[in-house]
């Protein structure tokens, strides 16, 4: 079958090969025919080495498709079912799951250390234990989440990561208060989803911050009340909050410099939500006096900060009701053979989300 492979960490291009085999099928496992997958910035971060991932590997973790085959003991899905790929499944048994913090379950991360694919040259890993830039993938049964027949594969793919992450940051982690002021730093697919979540919660002012003009324009269509470049943030803070700072600031870039900017633009007693996934050697500096004196809440948000399966259901319900726009997030579409075009679209910021149709 075909799959897009990164041969070595640090390379910036993928090679689409037709000699890749999805491996690991057996009891408790599911074979999925991938129909659509989104390109998330985390895929680029894994390729560059910012996020830890053994290589060679097939990127992609935001996918949807149909079940081809189920292993012994699998009862939740059957061949022919439509599913979204969940890259962070909950085991239901670990301390985090028993506390109700299923987004902190480490079972999915353990899958990342086992090869998902094989080529004549040797084993190939799948990013985050999945690897959806491939025609087929074999995953644990918990990674195959059934979806209703009326949810298109491209929409389902977005729910698999970016939309769940951004919406959840506003709805679950921050629990944005109606009438509040919000700033979102970084307005790709995840940031736009955070904007939609803040709008749903009734935020009075939502300021979108991004260096790319087309993303700022898009943010206004999705619910931002104003959109500014990073250089214009200080003026927006003054105009919207009288210089006090925003009630909520979402950092959706994953860098210490933008996290520091987010902290400085959060009002005293306000909430900074860290959504972006950054590098282990990129440190955010805060002094002990400001931590004590400002009493700002710093809330990291992992995969939307809530029960993933419930978040999927909620997102589908909101989409059906017309309360959120998911179709509009897909600004570009490419075939698997043109995957490197999608990478360029992400790097330049010209795309909110590119759908790879497989």
Descriptive terms for the model:
12 helices; 6-stranded parallel sheet; globular; alpha/beta; 7-stranded mixed sheet; 358 residues; 19 strands; single chain
Q: State the separation between the terminal residues, measured CA to CA.
A: 11 Å
Mean pLDDT: 96
How many strand segments? Answer: 19
- Total helical elements: 12
- The helical percent reads 25-40%
Strand content: 25-35%
Radius of gyration: 20 Å
Low-confidence stretches: none
Estimated structural class: alpha/beta
Shape: globular
Task: Outline the structure in words.
- This protein starts with a strand and ends with a strand.
- The protein has 12 helices and 19 strands.
- The model has no long low-confidence stretch (mean pLDDT 96).
- Helix 5 (162-174) runs parallel beside helix 6 (189-200) and helix 5 (162-174) packs across helix 11.
- Helix content is 30%, strand content 26%.
- The radius of gyration is 20 Å and the shape is globular.
- Strands 4, 6, 7, 10, 11, 18 and 19 form a 7-stranded mixed β-sheet that branches. A 6-stranded parallel β-sheet has the order 14-13-12-15-16-17, with helices on both faces. A 4-stranded mixed β-sheet has the order 3-8-9-5, with no helix packed on it.
Break the fold down into its secondary structure elements and pairings.
Elements: E1 3-5, E2 15-17, E3 21-22, E4 29-38, H1 41-48, E5 57-58, E6 62-70, E7 82-85, H2 95-98, H3 107-111, E8 117-119, E9 122-126, E10 136-140, E11 144-146, H4 153-159, H5 162-174, E12 181-185, H6 189-200, E13 205-209, H7 213-221, E14 226-228, H8 233-241, E15 246-251, H9 256-264, E16 266-274, H10 288-294, E17 297-300, H11 308-320, E18 330-335, H12 339-348, E19 353-357
Parallel strand pairs: 5-9, 12-13, 12-15, 13-14, 15-16, 16-17, 18-19
Antiparallel strand pairs: 1-2, 3-8, 4-6, 4-10, 4-19, 6-7, 7-11, 8-9
